[in-house]
Specification:
Number of helices: 6
Enzyme class: transferase
Protein name: 1-acyl-sn-glycerol-3-phosphate acyltransferase
InterPro entries: Plipid/glycerol_acylTrfase (IPR002123)
Pfam family, one: Acyltransferase
Strand order of the largest sheet: 1-8-7-2-5-3-4
Radius of gyration: 17 Å
EC number: 2.3.1.51
Largest sheet: 7 strands, mixed
Distance between the termini: 40 Å
Length: 224
Amino acid sequence: MLPLLVRFVLGPLVRALYRPEIRGVENIPATGPVLLAPNHRAALDTGVITFTAMRQVKFLGKAEYFTGRGLKGKLMAGFLGGLGYVPVERGNAQAGLAALEAARKVLDAGGAFAIYPEGTRSLDGRLHRGHTGVAALALATGAKVVPVALSGTENLQPAGKRIPRRAKITVTYGAPLDFSRYEGQDSSPAIRRSVTDEIMYAILELSGQEYVDSYHKRPDQSAA
């Protein structure tokens, strides 16, 4: 019931309040497996996609968000589940494989799944080199990839603000990308990189961001 509540009640209310400009939503296939590949500008990007995609979309979420105790913990887990989060452990290579497997299950069941190719939020506003997990999923499942460009979401919740404010937001869903020509080659690192770069170029064309051909580094990281 909660996913239906989010989609048909909360979604329209949020769109009416914040009035995002939504372009190309018809590019999202109504049925069948599809990967949404957005740029990543802000922590609220996931919510923006949830409320504008017009289809239930699954995302990866930290497992600890689902393990809270008591009524508050149960409500939080239920709400996040309703938003489409799939709990996964994070922090090591094994967790990364588990995350990809969780995403693959959604796609194999004909669902829609969103993954940020950059891997983390862009802190400088530029579009950074994509990680190949998005390509691995597309090649392994045959899912089409819809590039997504988010603009203005970084202004929704400035530092120190608990409630998102109204800001000019644009969400652009691009034409689906079909990689069936690479069927059976999902284990090739070169093919995965080529597919990822094609996806990133599509996002770049939609977003108009400056592109940086290196993985994003947070200020406290010494390596990508």
